[in-house]
């Protein structure tokens, strides 16, 4: 567990400068699922699509100071990594504009890293999401695509805080719901989300078209159909 008296966590919106950190998080999720070869996105893809003129997604990043290494803990059941991030201790050098940033909103579980803090922030987790719209409800919401918690902070409530902050952020933008999907083999994550009130929709199945299948659909007009 992380000692909240000595280690504080705050959650902030990611900027374009975080593209490399976000991409590393995606690779960690893929590694956890044994699907490293399926990740074909690049850091530039994340930067261009997430922080361009029309951002395709937003990311909330949880940061901490003075992390206390802990043994693996059966905690939140998310797409958790299997080893600490070696890159995080040097992510924010002296003079980086992100040092001492304010929280997105007050965390219910942790104190914030205040402005002027001398401790370098360390990555604790992230949640990547994008806008959604329910035509039946006539309401806006968000779809959570990726969420990961660094192993050093497992069981410390970081995943819960990330989801709660995401919900609060979406509500501030006029949204009323969250949606997400979970790998069918990730049973612990399924239980975790259900404990938070994210129920499994048994009436729906995800259908998708990628690669050649998508190109074929997009080219239907070329065949005269």
Can you describe what's shown?
By secondary structure, the protein is of the alpha+beta class. The protein has one domain (9-223): Gcn5-related N-acetyltransferase (GNAT) (Aminopeptidase, 3-Layer(aba) Sandwich). It has helices at 19-32, 43-50, 158-172, 187-195, 211-218, and strands at 9-13, 58-64, 122-134, 139-149, 175-180. The protein has a five-stranded mixed β-sheet. Helix 1 crosses helix 2 (43-50). The longest helix has 15 residues, at 158-172. Mean pLDDT is 77; it is low at 1-7 and 69-118.
Oligomer: single chain
Helix content: 10-25%
Secondary-structure element pattern, one letter each? EHHEEEHEHH
Q: Residue-averaged pLDDT, rounded?
A: 77
Shape descriptor? globular
Q: State the end-to-end distance.
A: 60 Å
Point out poorly predicted stretches.
1-7, 69-118
Which value, in Å, is the CA radius of gyration? 18 Å
Tell me the number of structural domains: 1
Secondary-structure class:
alpha+beta
Q: Provide the β-strand percentage band.
A: 15-25%
- The tally of strands reads 5
Q: Which CATH class?
A: Alpha Beta
Main β-sheet, spatial strand arrangement: 1-2-3-4-5
> CATH architecture, please?
3-Layer(aba) Sandwich
Most strands sheet: 5 strands, mixed
Number of helices: 5
CATH superfamily: Gcn5-related N-acetyltransferase (GNAT)
CATH topology: Aminopeptidase
